[in-house]
C-alpha cells in the first residue's frame, strides 16, 4: 500500500512541477514584447505589409529551391548501385542540371539586381 501511495504521489508531483515550470517560463517571456513580435526576413513588421517585393528575387529563390531539391534527390543515386552503369546515369542527370543552369544564366533569371 505504501508503494502505491508513493507512486501516486510521484505521478502527481512530476506533472505539477512541469506545469509550474512552464508557467514560470511563459510569464518570463511574456514581459518582453519585442521578442514576441514576428520577424520576417529582415523586413520591419511595424510598417505596411504591402511593400513591393522583387519578383526577380522570388524567381531566383524558386530556381534555387528547384535545383537544390533535384540535387538532393539525385546525389544518392551512385550510392544505390542498383545498375552497373549507375555513374553514367548520374553524370547524364547532372549534365542536364548543368545545362538548365546555363540556360537560366543566359536567360538572365539569375541576375535579379537589374
Automatic annotation (TrEMBL):
Listed InterPro entries: NADH_UbQ/plastoQ_OxRdtase_su3, NDAH_ubi_oxred_su3_sf
Protein name (record): NADH-ubiquinone oxidoreductase chain 3
GO cellular component, one term: NADH dehydrogenase complex
Function: Core subunit of the mitochondrial membrane respiratory chain NADH dehydrogenase (Complex I) which catalyzes electron transfer from NADH through the respiratory chain, using ubiquinone as an electron acceptor. Essential for the catalytic activity of complex I.
Organism: Whitmania pigra (Leech)
E.C. number: 7.1.1.2
Transmembrane portions of the chain: 6-26, 57-81, 87-106
Reaction it catalyzes: a ubiquinone + NADH + 5 H(+)(in) = a ubiquinol + NAD(+) + 4 H(+)(out)
Family to which this protein belongs: Belongs to the complex I subunit 3 family.
Entry keyword set: Electron transport, Membrane, Mitochondrion, NAD, Respiratory chain, Translocase, Transmembrane, Transmembrane helix, Transport, Ubiquinone
Membrane topology according to the record: Multi-pass membrane protein
Pfam families per the UniProt record, alphabetical: Oxidored_q4 (PF00507)
Cellular compartments annotated: Membrane; Mitochondrion membrane
Record GO terms (molecular function): NADH dehydrogenase (ubiquinone) activity
Amino acid at each position: 500500500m505504501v508503494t502505491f501511495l508513493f507512486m501516486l504521489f510521484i505521478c502527481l508531483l512530476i506533472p505539477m512541477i512541469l506545469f509550474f515550470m512552464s508557467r514560470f517560463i511563459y510569464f518570463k517571456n511574456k514581459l518582453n514584447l519585442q521578442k514576441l513580435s514576428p520577424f520576417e526576413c529582415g523586413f520591419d513588421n511595424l510598417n505596411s505589409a504591402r511593400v513591393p517585393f522583387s519578383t526577380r528575387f522570388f524567381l531566383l529563390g524558386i530556381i534555387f529551391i528547384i535545383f537544390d531539391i533535384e540535387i538532393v534527390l539525385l546525389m544518392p543515386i551512385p550510392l544505390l548501385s542498383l545498375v552497373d552503369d549507375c555513374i553514367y546515369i548520374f553524370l547524364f542527370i547532372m549534365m542536364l542540371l548543368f545545362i538548365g543552369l546555363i540556360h537560366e544564366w543566359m536567360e538572365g533569371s539569375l541576375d535579379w539586381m537589374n
